[in-house]
Design brief:
single chain; 158 residues; alpha+beta; three-stranded antiparallel β-sheet; 8 strands; 37% helix; elongated
């Protein structure tokens, strides 16, 4: 299992890749984080093409029920930071997750083009796509998007 990377680890990696002093990189990482936090504080979106988007998600106040006392309570409004991964980041994670050790060593940008070439062709309309679930086999029709129980026995070969 690989160790997680914290801020110090990230600073170290960037310093080695850029041949810059660790202190300079740490200041840059701090400035990057501060700039994102300032923008979110002003309710602005921060988009880094290919990497992702940072934004503020707003939840309005609503009424709820305390499960222990059954008393009605007001849940206050809440604003929380949210991150949505960009296309290149998603592809890089997908490639790394299902790859062999030789693919892990290549760059995500190079492997994303290879992934697009080897992906399965899109399904035709009205064609049924099988969604396998270990406990329950279901079939989704691409026209309606409805899920139906499959009559097949999961242990029998398809």
């Amino acid at each position: 299992m690989h160790a997680d990377i914290n801020k110090d680890g990230l600073v170290e990696i960037i310093a080695k890749k850029t041949n810059q002093k660790r202190q300079v990189i740490e200041e840059m990482v701090d400035a990057f984080v501060d700039a994102i936090m300032d923008a979110l504080h002003e309710d602005k979106k921060v988009t880094i093409a290919g990497f992702g988007t940072f934004e503020v998600s707003h939840r309005h106040a609503r009424e709820g029920v305390n499960p222990q006392t059954k008393e009605r309570i007001v849940i206050p409004s809440l604003s929380t930071p949210k991150f949505r991964a960009g296309k290149r980041l998603k592809e890089a994670v997908k490639v790394l997750k299902g790859s062999t050790s030789t693919q892990k060593e290549s760059s995500p940008a190079a492997t994303s083009a290879e992934t697009r070439k080897t992906e399965a062709p899109a399904q035709k309309p009205n064609q049924e796509a099988e969604i396998q679930n270990p406990q329950d086999r279901q079939v989704m029709t691409s026209e309606t998007g409805e899920m139906k129980k499959s009559d097949e026995n999961p242990s029998s070969p398809a």
